[in-house]
UniProtKB/TrEMBL annotation:
ABC3 transporter permease C-terminal domain mapped to chain residues: 291-401
Cellular component terms (Gene Ontology): plasma membrane
Membrane topology reported for the UniProt record: Multi-pass membrane protein
Domain MacB-like periplasmic core: 48-242
Protein name (Swiss-Prot/TrEMBL): Putative ABC transport system permease protein
Similarity annotation: Belongs to the ABC-4 integral membrane protein family.
GO molecular function: transmembrane transporter activity
Length: 408
């Protein structure tokens, strides 16, 4: 049967096709946006950290209150932690992944003018303590560690990730090249001395759409800071003992100076990431529930409406069988007919998905729905539509020719 004949049949009996079309359109619009929002929640959870996470303890919430931690106090705290049995390396830091006390956001501009917003981590020996592996270049030299603001007139050495190197320099070699500060493009800027494979940023809300590795390391000493953090790498065989020792050392070293009511937070990276992602996991379950509900309701709706239509056209099917139509012909007829209806619903649904996303952007400041999610939602709805109609279509194909002789 030609497409033209099918369209003529659908126009004559337009109510059922219209109901299916509207149901598919609404489901497609909801599904495209829900899948995209779910993917935004999932991306930071899938992003590699680039660190030796299994053996890392982070110490933060060391709040000096109205004062500041001096360079001597920072060094004394690091020495006290190094004496804890099972501790292999210690670094003071201003910011670390999965910590929210301090977030340092910088701008980086490549030779082509591309600007990227990055998170920065500073501290002595972070590369070694965090267990990050270089893929090119070197670590900072001892004489490159300076106080913040001491690099004037000369480029400040930085270590960047591979993803950031590709963004700033495209396919060109990044090692030894200059990165400009967008706020001061004529200044000395930064000099790339090392490249690591991955390093997760601590602004998890921005760790989506290829931005999870927009991170740099800077060789700045930690001093005169109101908030202090430590990264501690421990022996895998002494994890529990080392955690207890680190907690005792922190309390002994800083307890008297901590702001009233402030408690240091000492935990393994894995524990922190689990806590940081708890809200995202809850959101994922919510989106999964919404998507599952939409799919099930659409599946049942198409099956029910198509089954009713098959029942109403039983005599017509019997006539076609009596005139020589095979069971396969009847099956293909209903599958093709459903594909046309679902296809029209998908086109309308993609328009509704785009409109719905614009409303979400306006009222909830959500990101724009990338066009790739429209065909993803369309493909799912088309597959679901064909699956839903399969059972009624098979039932229609089994209608015997003798039905045409019965009165209806």
């Amino acid at each position: 049967m030609s497409i033209r004949v099918l369209l003529t049949t659908l126009r004559r009996h337009s109510l059922m096709p219209l109901l299916v079309l509207l149901q598919v359109a609404l489901a497609c619009a909801i599904l495209s946006n829900v899948l995209f929002l779910g993917w935004l929640q999932l991306q930071p959870m899938l992003a590699p950290s680039g660190m030796d996470t299994a053996n890392l303890i982070f110490v933060d919430h060391l709040d000096a209150g109205t004062g500041e931690w001096t360079a001597a106090e920072v060094r004394a705290g690091a020495e006290a932690l190094r004496e804890v049995p099972g501790v292999r390396a210690v670094s003071a830091a201003n910011s670390l992944p999965m910590t929210s006390g301090m977030i340092y956001a910088y701008g980086a501009q490549g030779p082509s003018g591309i600007k990227v917003g990055v998170n920065a981590y500073t501290g002595n020996g972070l590369l070694h303590t965090l267990g990050i592996r270089l893929v090119a270049g070197r670590d900072f030299l001892p004489d490159e560690y300076r106080n913040a603001g001491d690099y004037k007139g000369v480029p400040e050495p930085i270590i960047i990730t591979q993803a950031l190197a590709h963004k700033l320099f495209d396919k060109a070699r990044a090692l030894g090249r200059r990165v400009a500060d967008p706020e001061n493009p004529t200044g000395a800027g930064y000099l790339v001395v090392g490249i690591v494979r991955h390093l997760l940023r601590n602004q998890l809300g921005l760790a989506t759409r290829g931005r999870a590795d927009d991170t740099i390391l800077l060789p700045e000493r930690i001093a005169k800071t109101p908030v202090l953090l430590y990264a501690v790498r421990v022996d895998p065989a002494m994890r529990k003992a080392a955690l207890r020792g680190v907690r005792k050392a922190i309390q002994h070293q800083f307890g008297a100076r901590l702001q009233t009511g402030a408690q240091p937070k000492v935990a393994f990276y894995d524990t922190r990431s689990s806590q940081a992602f708890s809200g995202r996991r809850a959101a994922l379950w919510l989106f999964l529930g919404v998507a599952s509900t939409v799919l099930v309701v659409t599946l049942i709706g198409i099956m029910g409406l198509t089954g009713f239509w098959v029942q109403k056209r039983t005599r017509q099917i019997g006539i076609r069988r009596a005139l020589g139509a095979r069971r396969a012909d009847i099956l293909v007829h209903f599958l093709t007919e459903n594909a046309l209806i679902v296809g029209a619903g998908i086109v309308l649904g993609m328009l509704l998905a785009s409109l719905g996303n614009r409303l979400l952007m306006h009222y909830y400041e959500l990101p724009q729905l990338p066009w790739i999610w429209l065909p993803v939602g369309a493909a799912l709805m088309l597959a679901l539509g064909q699956l839903a109609v399969l059972s009624p279509a098979l039932r229609a194909s089994r209608v015997p020719p003798v039905v045409a002789t019965r009165s209806v």
